[in-house]
Amino acid sequence: MIEHILTQKIKESIQAIYSLDVLPEQIQLQKTRKEFSGDFTLVIFPFVKLLKSSPEAIGNTLGEYLKQNAAEVSGFNVIKGFLNLEISLDYWFSFFTAHAQNETFGFTRSDEAKPVVVEYSSPNTNKPLHLGHIRNNLLGFSLSRILSANGKKVIRVNLVNDRGIHICKSMLAWQKFGNGETPQSSGLKGDHLVGKYYVLFDKEYKMQIADLESQGMKREEAERQAPLMQEAQEMLRQWELGDQATVDLWRTMNGWVYEGFAATYQTLGIEFEKTYYESNTYLLGKQLVEQGLQNHVFYQRDDKSVWINLTEEGLDEKLLLRSDGTSVYMTQDLGTAMQRYQEFHPEQLVYVVGNEQEYHFQVLKLVIKHLGESWWNSIYHLSYGMVELPHGKMKSREGTVVDADDLMEEMFATAKDRTRELGKIQDFENEEAEKLYRTIGLGALKYFILKVDPKKNMLFNPEESVDFNGNTGPFIQYTYARIRSVLRKAGEQPNTAANGTTGLLPQEKTVLKFLHDFPQVVQDAAHEHNPAVVANYAYELACEFNRFYHDVVILKEENPGKRNFRLQLSRFTGQTLKNALWLMGMDVPERM
Question: How far apart are CA 26 and CA 79, in angstroms?
């Protein structure tokens, strides 16, 4: 990369001129601002005291030396304390020739032994996947591809929260009010059917609370004493004791949910190498807690509950086992983390989980540290913000969530309407058109979600996401389809990097510089665990190509060298857009 080359050349220049060694991190190099001439800018101010000269004098001396001694530098100018360097055409053409035909441009191969384990999705089996799960899945899947493109061996895993009080709520409601209803008898997807009874439990539970309050009981006590809650807690105890009837019902209803999840994942284009189940991992977690208790890492209160004291680390005391011996989320996460470490010995354990769990993962790392495990700091929590809608927040138990299946169908329908409005697919067969609608609809959903920094809360607007103009997935997909159309019309595959001139048009050079950035963008996205870095790059590249397309003659260019270069530049841009969108789990249409 030219930035690395320039940094080394600048370091060598300062040594040669001033007999002074500087560290690479002292060299502040950035892209030249658009209003100035140049490609990269060196900030001079940090060297003024060291070199005992004015910024302008240092800039001119360094610029002249680099121009004479660095083949990559063809010119320079100095503005106050900034040295603007112009990169030679030979460098840009050598980069172009080396990479224009590379279908995996920007991606790195590696034989690293230690993998990275990325957990995402992590649904509960008491409800279908919703919009919040979509952000989770898209972030996790995209990050796994970004890490893979950086040469990492990635293992994508899912942890299904298939046990606990929330599962028992759905089970109990179905037992009381279901009358034997099944997915087959109702026509509902299994996860939707189970979610229906989770909502029904909450409705009946609130009615019982209100009834107890009307009899003079305080709300907190009413919440504990409500018959439904008492029954749900007893059902959980029976499950952990292995009561056959309870376990059979649990298996049946979870089976319905798994079939529903699988269908949603397939539509969304999400995959996993392995799925873990809390009903298995919590047992290992309980064993680890018992070991910690024996080794005096944890302590037991009078009611037999088990805790860890983290006050010296700035946190508080954390429950690890309840007084009745049942586990909590921390118990199963402890077991899951240990199982994954023993299974894969990973370089990093990445958890894609909402920001409301930041405290939870701070505790998890410290619990593992207190158990004497050296890998405790390999846990990384990719914390993301909430997804909100124009009409407010979602609540699963009240049935006000945006269902993932319904949302995707809405996206497909909106993509269909918008595409038909443009009137450019009259010659499409029905099957081809339907595939296009799904490609555009999913692309719109994925891009709109991923273009936002994970740490931020976001407002999702389905209508805005399918706009064919602006910062959207369909705009970038349309740019790719436009490039493919140009190449088809050319009737040939461009096979030369020559442009037949001694220079580059500003629009050509701008696109070329953006292409040059892509490998660094992929690295930055992995380092930051942030797919938005790739998303925003893809949009900017699409914008720059469209400016080039409108301003510069391509197919009607009479000079064969120029024509071939522009076709090749277009093909290179299309491949890079395709690679960028692949990192986000998005497909590209050949025409639209």
Answer: 20
Distance in angstroms (rounded) separating the CA atoms of residues 306 and 327: 10
How many CB atoms are located within 10 Å of the residue 64 CB?
Answer: 13
Say which residue the tokens 């409301």 belong to: 356
DSSP element (H, E) containing 363: helix 358-370
SS3 393: coil
Q: What is the DSSP string of 200-252?
A: HHHHHHHHHHHHHHHTT--HHHHHHH-HHHHHHHHHHHHHHHT-HHHHHHHHH
Nearest residue to 416 (alpha-carbon basis) of 408, 74, 92: 408
Contact status, residue 184 vs residue 176, Cβ threshold 8 Å:
no
Per-position pLDDT tens, the chain of length 592 = 899 999 999 999 999 999 999 998 899 999 999 899 999 999 999 999 989 899 999 999 999 999 999 999 999 999 999 999 999 999 999 999 999 999 999 999 887 779 999 999 999 999 999 999 999 999 999 999 999 999 999 999 999 999 889 999 999 999 999 999 999 999 999 999 999 999 999 999 999 999 999 999 999 999 999 999 999 999 999 998 999 999 999 999 999 999 999 999 999 999 999 999 999 888 999 999 999 999 999 999 999 999 999 999 999 999 999 998 888 889 989 999 999 999 999 999 999 999 999 999 999 999 999 999 999 999 999 999 998 876 544 444 444 568 899 999 999 999 998 888 877 777 888 899 999 999 999 999 999 999 999 999 998 887 888 888 889 999 999 999 999 999 999 986 656 555 545 589 999 999 999 999 999 999 999 999 999 999 999 999 999 999 999 999 999 999 999 999 999 999 999 999 999 999 999 999 998 8
**Measured between alpha carbons, how far is 105 from 584 in angstroms, rounded to an integer?**
16
Check if the beta carbon of residue 79 is closer than 8 Å to that of residue 36. Answer: yes
Pair type for strands 82-87 and 73-79: antiparallel
Beta bridge partners of 387: 458
CB crowding 401-438: b at 16 or more within 10 Å, else e: bbbbbebbebbbebbbebbeeeeebeeeeeeebeebbb
Distance (Å, whole) CA 230 – CA 37? 74
Query: CA–CA separation, 485 vs 574, rounded Å?
Result: 11
Q: Which of 403, 399, 394 is nearest to 189 (CA)?
A: 403
Q: What strands lie across the sheet with 299-300, from one edge to the other? A: 299-300, 306-309, 317-321
462 contact partners, CB below 8 Å, separation of at least 6: 407, 410, 411, 414, 445
**End-to-end CA, the chain:** 35
Looking up tokens 């360094």, which residue turns up?
Answer: 62
How far apart (Å, rounded) are the C-alpha atoms in residues 209 and 218?
A: 9
Q: Which two tokens stand for residue 467?
A: 């706009």
**φ, ψ at 332 (rounded to 5°):** -70, -35
CA atoms within 13 A on the CB side of 499: 20
Residues whose CB is less than 8 angstroms from the CB of residue 242 and which lie 6 or more positions away in sequence, other chains included: none
CB 113 within 8 A of CB 425: no
Question: What's the CA gap between 44 and 84, in Å, rounded?
Answer: 10
**Which runs of E-coded beta strand occur in 98-191?**
116-119, 154-160
Residue type, 247: V
